[in-house]
Amino acid sequence: MGRLEGKVALVTGGRGGIGRAICARFEAEGAVVYAADLSEAGSLAAPDGASRFVRVDVSDEDCVTAAMARVAEEQGRLDVLVNAAGIEIEKTIEETNLGEWNRSFAVNVTGTFLTSKHALPLMRKAAEGGVSASIINFGSYDGFIADPGLAAYCATKGAVHALTRAMACDHGPEGIRVNAVCPGYIDTPMLQSFFTGEGSGGGGKSIGELQQAVRDVHPLRTYGTPEDIANLVTWLASDEARYASGQLWVLDGGLSAQVQQMRI
């Protein structure tokens, strides 16, 4: 029997790099999984995800409520919500226009707010049986420290960290645990975009040189994979993590443990 046997989960950004890995792992662990994203192919341009697809723009409240209505009709409850949808803009605040700033917050922060808000009634039903439900938000190590040229992204992740703590305090008494996973460099389409030479990437280096520079700055001399993140998310979603709530779980290969970090 898998760790998530019989549980119902919804993963936003479920057709992206990290989201797809989470969906696959959840299904392997026995969960019924809804992958919520803007398109079936997602950022990987691959429509072959096995989990149930539901189209959701997390910044659109009507889209979010429609997705939750579908889960309610088909399953009657929601045990696990993973807020993995996110965008990144590689600019300083001077270079960022108001539309870009607002869009960053709309997806990364307001999206987390909306999906959590409208999932709560279904998650209370899941918690009625005496086993806690679990919300897993996505922060970032950039919510603690900053990479150059990621001002709006860093600001949104700091907001998600604070929101996670507040939600854990408010909804813990209802049997709903809330945590945030805070990745460092993970091999996703977002990271590969960083390597193409725009924003804080580039600097005249080849993609291979940039990839090696990123590996070398980590104490473990590598960056992570979506499966690394899925491992932690699976534990937080499971009953093994029944006493884990209100925490920011950094998974960055030791990057943020260093006194000084390489500027990439």
From TrEMBL:
> Which UniProt key words apply to this protein?
Oxidoreductase
Protein family membership:
Belongs to the short-chain dehydrogenases/reductases (SDR) family.
Q: Encoded by which gene?
A: cpnA_3
Which CDD domains is this protein grouped with? SDR_c
Q: Which InterPro entries does the entry mention?
A: NAD(P)-bd_dom_sf, Sc_DH/Rdtase_CS, SDR_fam
Q: Give the Enzyme Commission number.
A: 1.1.1.163
Single GO term (MF) = cyclopentanol dehydrogenase activity
Source organism: Roseovarius indicus
Where does the secretion signal sit in this chain?
none
Instruction: Write down the top EC class of this protein.
Output: oxidoreductase
What is the name listed in the Swiss-Prot or TrEMBL entry for this protein? Cyclopentanol dehydrogenase
